[in-house]
Please model this.
Amino acid sequence: MIGDSRTRRALSALRHDPPAVAGAAVLLLLVLVGVAGQWLAPAGVNDVDVDQMLHPPSWAHPFGTDELGRDVLSRVLVAARVSLQVGVVSVGIALLVGATIGLVAGYYQGWVDNVLMRGMDVLFAFPVLLLAVAIVAVLGPGLLTAMIAIGVVYTPIFARVTRAGVLSVREQVFVRAAVSIGASDLRIIRRHVLPNIAAPLIVQTSLSLAFAILSEAALSFLGLGVQPPAPAWGRMLFDGRGFVTEAWWLGFFPGAAIFLTVLAFNLVGDALRDVLDPRQLTLGEARRSTA
Amino acid sequence: MSRFILRRLLQSAVVLLGVTLVVFLLLQLVPGDPVRVALGTRFDPQTYEALRSRAGLDRPLLTQYLSYVGHALTGDLGVSFRSGQPVTTIVLERLPATLSLALTAVLIAVLIALPLGVLAAVRNGSALDHAVRVFSQFGVSVPDFWMGIMGILLFAGVLGWLPPSGYVALTDDPAGWLSHVLLPAATIGLVTASILTRFIRSSVLEVLSADHVRTAEAKGLRGRVVVLRHVLRNALIPVVTVVAVQLASLLGGVIVVEVLFAWPGIGRLTYDAVQARDYPVLQGAVLLVAALFLVMNLLVDILYARLDPRIRVR
Model:
């Protein structure tokens, strides 16, 4: 199958791409921290110690302590789970909903296509973060609503990528042959269309994970993500901003964690794009990345 | 061309109508009674009834929507649940601050990205090219608010060169405005520059391999002349559109940067409205931004079609 050989080729090419290998290694480490963060953490994330307030990095507290004397390293480690969870769930929502919409629109075309894609155009008309903030504002802040909001704002890009893929695959001879022998729509979509549009979707997923994690950090920074006292990197930056000039470590370490995570996803995503889908437009990416 | 513009105008009008529907529905999604939620402890029956009636919440849903669109067309976006002031006035008051920040940020971005992107493409594969690619990869991945915090730490805390936050209007005190805008604009500008650099590099690379460039080189034209006269002209067409799209995004208010630097623009207004549960102001800000975003994208498409006639037939 085309899909299988492409995947093998992609994996082999990725192994020879040092930045992609570094990115994958960071992601592996991150998953490990996400799963085992609370056991790896040297202290409890909410262990308040008024005698240890705003202590700079030391052997006892390698990332220092915050304004309540809590260990910053422990909070950074445990917060990894939140970022990964939000990234995976929200992009999962966007992929599932967006790809279904794109598939139906591209396959059936006509008025169905028109209605669905105009709906996607409407969502695309909002800057990403603004729409996410508005959704969270009305539904109420929290982990679940942040995941839903980020999922909603990234849905149109998946719908567009899927639709574009379906439109080109639909005209291929093997699809027309399947139609002419009377194969059902579901069978054609499952056996012929999906395997051939997987590549751009994989690329979009890995790049969207990076943006979703950035969006979650931004929502948390605005106090609209995970609620205290649970730790989240963005929230830690927000809480630490008042002490930025006297306690640099409060801002530095959580931000560096976000940066490394997003960089790792971008490195892997870019390498995947180079191998699987070199012609994918970067304009969409540019549109989604600032808000 | 006029047919293309007409088609794009119609499409944009349909999308704008959809945008008003989404913005209208935001208020309906608020769990419970939005006016009661907004008033919180300041609740008193008289204010409550007045606000509900002014917002039209006591009428059927369809009537509410039609009235919302009708009023929006005349520039009436309702009144703030908090201050009772017209939303349109509140939102428009914040526009100059956002506009000045966004334009400065895009200027910084272009000044960095243009030479870097062109040099990286012309010297493809060199150490400089690798360094530029690393810069752009880092820039795309760095959270802007983190860079802002680090900027405050360095330039306001350690060096003491710039104020850590705040705003001075350009018309009141240009020098004061400049010192306040530099940090937030550089924060956004560096991130935008990294996106633009990538785009300029790949655009220039594509044109460099085109036939007419090879012909120009074969004629014996100097490298500088080829790049300036034959490459940049063609390569910058798509770049202009990306710059405009970036500017449109920034006009939407860079919420986190405006919050971090206490910059009183649309982003900060949105944040304050969320905190105060002032839903009409939130709706107004979101609607204005989406409409601006839509208009900018429409202008970009028209500009693009004018610069590159092949677009019109697609």
